[in-house]
């Protein structure tokens, strides 16, 4: 239930911020001059950086690809163990961002971008859904590389493996001792039977 609420809040945050930005179309707000600001721009009919803009076939293709991606994220989310919360949150954030832009593409035939960013190497416009996809992708990578139980570079993983080996060794030793005790008890019973 919490996941559903978080998903709805993330999608609404995207859609509401887009609606507010486009309600003030033509005006802009500068947060950090030359680096960060808010300004609604014409619909982005393509992908990131305007790729595929102006192509007639781009919107149906992008809608289809996004729908397939959302479905894949949903299936993965439902199949992943509930104990793997970090990975599930990453998928949820990714899914919310994809759905936010999918709504735009289905309704407006393009994505409403309004956040201006200049990262020195590249400058671009994006929106809350794009930020959610970016954050979700970063969380997903962190989960797979460092956080998840089976993470590639999980800190303390060797310690856990060592503890597991020690626990197995202790169980094996306990099993051998139990076998010895059972064997001794059997021999004692055999002696008692012979003595009778």
Q: On the 0-100 scale, what is the average pLDDT?
A: 85
Distance from first to last alpha carbon: 70 Å
Helix-strand string: HEEHHEEHH
Q: What is the number of E strands?
A: 4
Approximate shape: elongated
Helix share, percent:
55-70%
State Rg.
29 Å
Explain this structure.
The chain is α+β, with helices and mostly antiparallel strands. Helix content is 65%, strand content 9%. A four-stranded antiparallel beta sheet has the order 1-2-3-4. A hairpin with a 3-residue loop joins strand 1 (28-32) and strand 2 (36-39). The mean pLDDT is 85.
Summary of the model, kept short:
The chain has 196 residues and is of the alpha+beta class.
Task: List the defining traits of the structure above.
single chain, 196 residues, alpha+beta, four-stranded antiparallel sheet, 5 helices, 4 strands, 65% helix, elongated
Strand-helix topology:
Elements: H1 2-23, E1 28-32, E2 36-39, H2 58-79, H3 85-108, E3 115-118, E4 123-126, H4 128-147, H5 157-195
Antiparallel strand pairs: 1-2, 2-3, 3-4
Helix pairs in contact: 1-3, 2-3, 3-4
